[in-house]
Amino acid sequence: MTAATTDMAAPGQDARKAGRFVYITAVVLLCAWVLVPLYFLLINTLSSPEAVNAYPKSFIPEFDLDSLRFFAGFEGILTALKNSILVAAMTMVMSIVIGAPAGYALSRFDFRGKELFRLLILLTRAFPLPLLALPLAVMFIRTGIDDTVFGLALVHTTLAIPFAVLITFSLFSGIPIELEEAAWTLGCNRLTAFQKVILPLVLPGITASAIFAFVISWNEVFAAAVLTIENRTLTAFLLQNLDTSPLHLKFAGGFILVVPALIFIFAVRKYLFAMWGIANR
Amino acid sequence: MAVIEIKNVAKRFGDYQALHDINLTIDDQEFMVLLGASGCGKSTLLRIICGLETASEGEVWIGGKRVDHLAPKDRGISMVFQNYAVFPHLTVFENIGFGLRMQKLPNDEVTRRVERTADLMHIGQLLKRYSGELSGGQRQRVAVARALAMEPDVILMDEPLSNLDALLRMEMRAELKGVLAESNTTAIYVTHDQVEAMSMADRISVMHEGKIVQAASPIEVYRNPAAEFVAGFIGNPPMNFLQATPQGGGKYSVAGASFDGPSAANSNLQFAIRPEDMTLSETGFPAVAKVVEPLGAHLLVTCELDGKLFRAILDSEMQVKPGETLKLAPVQDRIRWFDPDTTLAVA
Question: Which is it for strands B31-35 and B186-191: parallel, antiparallel or unpaired?
Answer without folding.
Answer: parallel
